[in-house]
C-alpha cells in the first residue's frame, strides 16, 4: 500500500494509486518529495494497541509517550471487509447518516503518541498505505503522557474500559495539541456507515494482529518488506 495526496479527492481511486505508487510521502502534490516531520501522532484504530504500534515501527517504543486523546468533529468507520477503520471529517461523513449525530458520536477517541522518529514515520506511512493521507489535526489529551515502557503488559480484556467516561464539555477539555493523523482518502463508499469502536476490535479481531495470531496477517507484509530492504525503496509497476 502507498499513500494518497491530500488534494486527491478529484482523482479516481486508480489514478490516486498510480500517482502515489512510487513514493511513500504524503501531503499536497507540492510536498510529495518533502517529508512531513511527525513528532506527535494521533492513532484511532489498530495502532491504539501498543503492541501493534511497536510491531509496525520495529522497536520497543521506549522513546514514545502516549495518553488517551480526543479528536472532535470527525467520525470513525470500519473499512468494508477489513478489521480497521478510517476517519472522515463530519462535514464529509454527514451524508452517510439519516440524522444529526450527537457530540459523542462525532468525536473520535484515540491515543496521542509523542517521540516518533523519522524512521518510525516512514514505516507508519508504508503501513497505512494508499487508503490514507497524513494530515495535521488538533486533538485534546484526556490524561497525562506516560512512557510506553512504563505501561504494563496489556491483557485483551483490560485494554479498554467497559464503559468509557463521558466526553467532557469543550470548556473542560483543556488546550488542544497539534498532531498528525491518517485520514481516509478514498471513496466514502468503501466505508461502513456504522461507527467503528476500539472495544469491538479488541474483543473480536485484535488476536489477528498480535503475537502468534499475526503470523499470517498480510497487513504487515509491506512494512516488513520495506524494513528488510533497510530503507531501499523500489517502485514497482
UniProtKB/TrEMBL annotation:
Domain of life according to the entry: Eukaryota
Keywords attached to this entry: Transferase
Name under which the protein is recorded: Putative gamma-glutamylcyclotransferase
Transmembrane helix as UniProt keyword: no
Domain Gamma-glutamylcyclotransferase AIG2-like: 42-139
Organism of provenance: Suillus placidus
Any one GO molecular-function label of the UniProt entry: transferase activity
Pfam families named among the record's database cross-references: GGACT (PF06094)
Family stated for the protein in its record: Belongs to the gamma-glutamylcyclotransferase family.
